[in-house]
Amino acid sequence: MNKKQKKMLIRILVSAFLMICLHFLELDGWMRFIAYMVPYLIVGYDILIKAGKGILNHQVFDECFLMAVATLGAIALAIYDNGDYTEAIAVMLFYQIGEWFQSYAVGKSRRNISDLMDIRPDYANIEHDGVLEKVYPDEVEIGSVIVVQPGEKVPIDGIVLEGNSSLNTSALTGESLPRDIKAGDAIISGCINMSGVLKIKTTKEFDESTASKILDLVENASSRKSRSEAFISRFARIYTPAVCYSALALAILPPIVRMLGMNLDPQWHIWVYRALTFLVISCPCALVISIPLSFFAGIGGASKAGVLVKGSNYLETLSKTKIVVFDKTGTLTQGVFEVSGIHHNQIENDKLIEIAALAESASSHPISKSLQRAYHHEIDRSRVKDIQEISGHGIVAKVDGQDVLIGNTRLMDKYHIPYKECHHTGTILHMAINSQYAGHIVISDVLKPTSLKAMQALKKCGIEKLVMLTGDIKKVADAIGQKLGLDTVYSNLLPGDKVEKVEELLSSKPEHAKLAFVGDGINDAPVLSRADIGIAMGAMGSDAAIEAADIVLMDDDPMQIPKAIKISKKCLRIVYENIVFAIGVKLICLLLGALGLTNMWIAIFADVGVMIIAVLNAIRALFVNKL
Asked: Which tops the pLDDT comparison, 87 or 335?
């Protein structure tokens, strides 16, 4: 609880205490008026000031204006009629109680998001002559060597030069299990070093590092409003002046009609009281406060679970998703490739692997890395020349003066090399040396342990169609699709083909259904951008993911996908509950108020009671652990 909330709580308690005390004192006339104005002003002075400022700034119609008019009118009626100021003070008191609940709920949501803000580093250590000097992270240049000691945050993305340690990534992923790191590994900002001393060579500037990008993403999330929020904002702008004029008409027209048209007593005090009751009932606080709060709480709860949502509009879209399209490598599979076989080779296995590793030495693709690992020796780049990567085909290079082709069947066809088909499951790399077929290497990738469970969970979430896109051969793709129970599998796709397939799926889907694409964020940026909702999974440190995706899952566990959808559905369910409840209660009470069948106490419930219930309901969006 912050200072402002504590101060407001004290004002509420003091005002309530004074009201109870005054109830037992017998005061009359001006002494009674002055005595009751003390608790009224203690609890409501800021509302009166805000209402006055709104009038001066020509922004009249808001909840402060409604509360000020209703309570001051009730005080005027009390002076005129019976001297009972309790209702006027109670309206202001309960309104402030509702505001306090709303402030507390927003604070709780902000604390969830501010837990993520803990990834912001305060300093970086640079070593000079054996002494560590603390500098601001934004002063560190690319290529500098920084030192991260146990217990310190990693300030900037880089490569570990020296040291072994475990990293606490819970602020980024929501996972409590530490991750081991060693020399040669890439490391991202925002993690906490738990054990050993690490020397890191920076690869990015502070503003471009992962922590800065994620913080910017979360801080700007509230600027992207959902359709529900936009509707409520437009509704309030029209609704508030409408009810003010309706209340004015209710206070003036019936007495005039009674007096001039029916020759009856105008009963001004009765109709003014009804109009004031009507005003209190009509205050749109429950809607205006609880709907944005529900989305804010949903984003806060999601961030705590390692699901970063760029705006409430994306949370709303995710809840309507019916088709989920997956990239394969690194999303459904581990992306850790191993050489599992060599067939039809014309030279020794080790020699074929050596030539393949040298030809692939300039590529950072996981398959290339697997060949380099299988070689078990340092790569001598001087032996390789004229490397050319042909997208969707493979590599052309000169190795020890020999022309080498390594890639898929499309590469062999392009260069008219007869090749042998492979009947093993895996990614097949065909090789040719000096235009002669040299054999093929089988590279296998394995499914992530939770991929099958995630697909089953998505079906339970209401997803109607699961699709996989991959550049792998049909045999490998179909085998994975069958294991996971996918509805459709598209194989042998070039990068551009993935966009075309997503376009086809978008054009054929039902109008109100949404399509989500899930990728690893490295090569999938065009598809992530084109889908209704782009989800980058396991994207720590991936610039492409953070830039292109609408939702970033900070862990590489496929189970995060159904969890994100459940969070969005829960949030939207709470939003619709609050809309129906708030509007329903208000419409009933407004009708009863206009007919004189309610009093100010019912009006207080219709305004403040409904707001408190809606706010408490909105807070539920924060709790996402048991979904």
From this structure: 87
Rg of the chain on CA atoms, in Å: 33
pLDDT band at 82; cut points 50, 70, 90: low
Cβ atoms of residues 67 and 92 within 8 Å:
yes
Sheet holding 186-187, edge to edge: 131-135, 124-128, 145-148, 198-202, 158-162, 186-187
Q: Where are the alpha helices (DSSP H) in 24-85?
A: 29-56, 63-80
How far apart are the C-alpha atoms of 159 and 53, rounded to whole Å? 55
Active-site residues: which are they?
327
Rounded to two decimals, what is the model's pTM? 0.70
Environment class of 295 (CB within 10 Å of its CB; exposed 0-12, middle 13-18, buried 19+): buried
Helix (H) or strand (E) holding 200: strand 198-202
Band of pLDDT at residue 229, cut at 50, 70 and 90? low
Distance from the first to the final alpha carbon of the chain: 27
CA-nearest of 283, 291, 318 to 230 is 291
Q: At which residue do the structure tokens 């003390």 appear?
A: 38
What one-character DSSP code corresponds to residue 153? B
106: Cβ–Cβ under 8 A, 6 or more apart, which residues? Answer: 293, 296
H-type helices in 184-258, by residue range? 210-219, 227-256
Q: Which amino acid is at 537?
A: M
Query: In a 3-state reduction of DSSP, which class is residue 149?
Result: coil
Tokens representing residue 331 in the block: 């999303």
- Amino acid at residue number 169: T
CA 331 to chain centre: 19
How many beta carbons lie within 10 A of that of residue 240, not counting itself? 19
Q: What is the pLDDT of residues 602-627, one digit of tens each?
A: 877 777 788 888 888 888 888 887 77
Sign of CA pseudo-dihedral 85, 86, 88, 89: positive
Rounded to an integer, what distance in angstroms lies between the CA atom of residue 613 and that of residue 480? 48
Question: Looking at 63-67, 196-200, 282-286, 427-431, which range is the least confident one?
Answer: 282-286
Query: Which two tokens mark 125?
Result: 């250590």
Residue 616 CA to residue 611 CA, distance in Å, equals 9
Q: ∠117-121-123 over CA atoms, to 5°?
A: 155
Q: For residue 351, how many C-alpha atoms fall within 13 Å in the half-sphere facing its CB?
A: 9
Average pLDDT over residues 147-176: 83
- Give the ranges where 320-365 is alpha helix by DSSP (H): 349-359
- Cβ pair 302, 316 in contact under 8 A: no
Cβ-contact 333, 446 below 8 angstroms: yes
- Give the position of tokens 């997208």: 391
Residues 6+ apart with CB under 8 A from 212: 189, 206
CA 556 distance to own-chain centroid: 16
DSSP H or E stretch at residue 402: strand 402-407
434 close to 405: Cβ distance less than 8 angstroms: no
Q: Are strands 465-469 and 321-327 parallel, antiparallel or unpaired?
A: parallel
d(CA 552, CA 233): 28
The answer to whether the beta carbons of residues 509 and 526 sit under 8 Å apart is: no
Return the amino acid letter for 163: G
Tokens 């509230």 sit on residue: 222
Residue 152 DSSP symbol: P
Q: What angle do CA 208, 211, 212 make, to 5 degrees?
A: 50
C-alpha–C-alpha distance, residues 391 and 596, integer Å = 76
